[in-house]
Design a protein that fits this description.
single chain; 758 residues; mainly alpha; two-stranded antiparallel ribbon; 33 helices; 64% helix; EC 2.4.1.109; TMTC_DUF1736
């Protein structure tokens, strides 16, 4: 028997209202791929993105991390939070001529929070946040791709439908596991790109929510449009590319919400057709929304321009040589070649490098250069895609290709050199957002191939193999980003002509004490770029330490000749001239360095040493005092002041300076030692003893500490303790000057006392 009671309690079915034509084919129909519920699809994407980059979690601070994080005073608690809004990404004032004008205060704020929670510069926390951000972005991409590939459609209860679950999952996996993203995820400064991408996507999804109640295609939520503008502004405060989402929202509105046919619109505009309203341009709300987006974008850009100081950033020829070419044709050819390299990195991300400047990509100066083929291939593909996007009779194809090209090109525009000069040739980090467009085009191409292919499963296996290959490449590349040594050496095979690569390998070796190997790489850097002043400066420093003073002077002189305001090279030249006993020239070099860098404590310290060698004691003390004013923790300058005052018999002044220094640097054992010597000479034996013992506790293997404490006990009459510390000192350093003589004097005195006692 059939029971009919259930009819009364039947649930109401949700009605869907479309934002796209119901007759459009689904991309999922012809592909052989995984069909997972939305929750599981996002879990898979999160897992894959984690798998790709998890091994970077315990990496070091590498490459630009040093300047953006370790040397950035904006991360320290003592720097007022308000300063973040007036400084660039590297901590320099935006008004400074040397500022790169990269205004990313929200990114710096997250670094500061990392630093405060970690209690210092511990890279693990920084890396973990980057990995979490990439996983979050990859999960959001499932929703974004479902809209871009399947269209925007809601139920009557406002729940968005995923009309392309298979293709959106594939595109999100391609994005999550793209090796070109390694720099953004494994390099901590890539946080800027990750935060920008996060708010970029949130702005897009927010804009889509504006049409949740839009059953007739006319109503929209003004609130969500404004929210998307605000989120776009936040994205730009993380990195400059963020502003481009407002343009993409406008493109999406025209193509998906209003189903605008771009070619038809252009034809009507050219023929001054009065039926423009029917073409969709004047459909209710579209102009208002685009006006809101564009006015919001213009306001954000104007504010950004005012904060930046209205002046463009200053870059050098080595940063972007094509932009300094005299010929417009040479500039245009090389810019387009750079675009083709970016496209190749998206298609085949196997050759990756942390830096592509300084000769890595030689300029194309002639049309006979074979690399012109790359430009032709790029534009052949682009023109073909643009023609299909504009002229295809299939509205579904037009929409997807236009959105794919939009997401590929528009976020790349700030890095294109078209509007202003940028400070790089190719940078993998700037194609983090454009890779969204690549994933759309790749997935659409895969669906077209699947439609034609008879053996769809073989094609699906091939794509799965590509994904697995990308995961492996991401993991390998992430491991290279874990340390500077691995990162810099990995670039030697990719960019052997890049002087900066050789410079960084050399610097890394020098930091580890391998000067001989470092010299080799510094020389190669100078050979590749004869105007590379930083390589000359570092090479000159090493040669100076190895007492090869003549060549060191030649290199440093050439460096300051090429870049007359290079303060560090002037100071190092002064040190070499001082060693060569050319004191007047050394003094002039030091003052030239200070002229170009007013706050230069190390230079004042070296100037003080010069004056001390010349017995100009007052000048020496003034120079060292300047060093400590500029850098209160400058231990060497404090020590030299104490020692000079001690040696010239100014014990009271030496004691005062020593106490002042220890208040500022209470745990510096060398200062304790110097002050203890002064107190001993002033017959303040008890206080002197306490400082000696404290210094020895901090540095127990310093022979001079034990030797001078023994002298104190010797003077004080505590002969047994004196004997003990003389013996410790001689054990640590049998050749310690004066200690053996003092010890022998003490032994004779003890023998005499024993005879008298006997």
């Amino acid at each position: 028997q059939i029971h009919k009671q259930h009819n009364a309690e039947a649930p109401e079915l949700e009605q869907a209202f479309p934002r796209m034509a119901q007759t459009e084919p689904s991309l999922d129909h012809d592909i052989s791929w995984f069909l997972l519920p939305s929750y599981w699809a996002k879990m898979v994407v999160a897992f894959i993105s984690l798998l790709c980059f998890a091994n970077s979690y315990d990496g070091d601070f590498v490459f630009d991390d040093s300047e953006a994080i370790i040397n950035n005073k904006d991360l320290r608690a003592e720097t007022p939070l308000g300063d973040l809004w007036h400084h660039d990404f590297w901590g320099s004032k935006l008004s400074s001529n040397t500022s790169h004008k990269s205004y990313r205060p929200l990114t710096v704020l997250t670094f500061r929070i990392n630093y405060l929670f970690a209690g210092g510069f511990y890279p693990v926390g920084f890396h973990v946040i980057n990995i979490i951000l990439h996983c979050t972005i990859s999960v959001l991409m499932v929703d974004v791709f479902s809209i871009l590939l399947g269209g925007l459609q809601f139920t009557n209860k406002g729940r968005r439908l995923n009309l392309a679950p298979k293709t959106s999952l594939l595109a999100a996996l391609l994005f999550a596991a793209h090796p070109v993203h390694t720099e953004c995820v494994a390099g901590i400064v890539g946080r800027a790109d990750l935060l920008c991408a996060l708010f970029f996507l949130l702005s897009f999804l927010g804009y889509c929510k504006a049409f949740r109640e839009n059953k007739e295609g006319h109503n929209f939520s003004l609130f969500w449009v404004l929210v998307s503008v605000v989120l776009g502004a936040i994205a730009m405060l993380c990195k400059e590319q963020g502003i481009t989402i407002l343009g993409l929202n406008a493109v999406f509105d025209a193509l998906v919400i209003n189903k605008l046919n771009v070619l038809e619109l252009i034809q009507k505009l050219l023929h001054k057709d009065k039926s423009l309203e029917n073409a969709g341009l004047l459909r209710k709300g579209l102009l208002l929304r685009i006006t809101l987006l564009m006015s919001g974008g213009a306001s954000i850009l104007y504010t950004r321009w005012r904060i930046m100081g209205t002046g463009p950033p200053a870059f050098t020829e080595v940063d972007n040589p094509a932009s300094f070419a005299d010929s417009l044709l040479v500039r245009a050819i090389n810019y387009n070649y750079y675009y083709s390299l970016n496209a190749w990195l998206l298609l085949c991300p196997w050759w990756l490098c942390f830096d592509w400047s300084m000769g890595c990509i030689p300029l194309i100066k002639s049309l006979s250069d074979w690399r012109i083929i790359a430009l032709a291939a790029l534009w052949f593909c682009l023109i073909g895609l643009i023609c299909q996007a504009l002229c295809s009779e299939d509205s579904h194809k037009r929409r997807i290709l236009t959105l794919g090209l939009g997401f590929l090109i528009i976020p790349f525009l700030p890095a294109s050199n078209l509007f202003f000069r940028v400070g790089f040739v190719v940078a993998e980090r700037v194609i983090y957002l454009p890779s969204i467009g690549y994933c759309i085009l790749f997935t659409y191409g895969f669906s077209l191939l699947s439609k034609q292919a008879k053996k769809k499963k073989i094609l699906a296996v091939a794509v799965l193999g590509l994904l697995l290959l990308n995961v492996v490449r991401c993991a390998l590349r992430s491991s290279q980003w874990r340390s500077e040594e691995e990162l810099f050496r990995s670039a030697l095979s990719v960019c052997p002509l890049n002087a900066k690569v050789h410079y960084n390998v050399g610097k890394n070796l020098a930091d580890k004490g391998n000067q001989s190997a470092a010299i080799k790489y510094y020389r190669e850097a100078v050979r590749l770029n004869p105007k590379y002043v930083h390589a000359m400066n570092n090479l000159g420093n090493i040669l100076k330490e190895r007492n090869e003073l003549q060549e060191a002077e030649e290199l440093l002189s050439l460096a300051v000749q090429i870049q007359p305001d290079f303060a560090a090279a002037w100071m190092n030249l002064g040190i070499v001239q001082n060693s060569l006993r050319r004191f007047e020239e050394a003094e002039q070099s030091y003052w030239t360095a200070i002229k170009h860098r007013k706050k230069y404590p190390d230079c004042y310290y070296n100037l003080g040493r010069l004056y001390a060698d010349l017995n100009r004691h007052i000048d020496a003390l003034n120079a060292w005092r300047n060093a400590t004013v500029l850098k209160p923790e400058h231990s060497l300058a404090w020590n030299n002041m104490i020692i000079l005052l001690d040696n010239t018999g100014n014990l009271a002044q030496a004691e005062a300076v020593g106490r002042e220094a220890l208040e500022l640097i209470p745990n510096d054992h060398s200062l304790m030692f110097s002050l203890a010597n002064v107190l001993g000479k002033s017959q303040k034996y008890k206080e002197s003893e306490a400082l000696f013992l404290k210094a020895i506790k901090a540095n127990p293997n310093a022979a001079s500490y034990h030797g001078n404490l023994a002298v104190l006990y010797h003077r004080w009459g505590n002969l047994d303790l004196a004997k003990k510390h003389y013996e410790v000192s001689l054990k640590l350093d049998p050749m310690a000057p004066g200690t053996k003589e003092n010890y022998n004097l003490l032994r004779r005195k003890l023998e005499q006392l024993q005879k008298k006692g006997g």
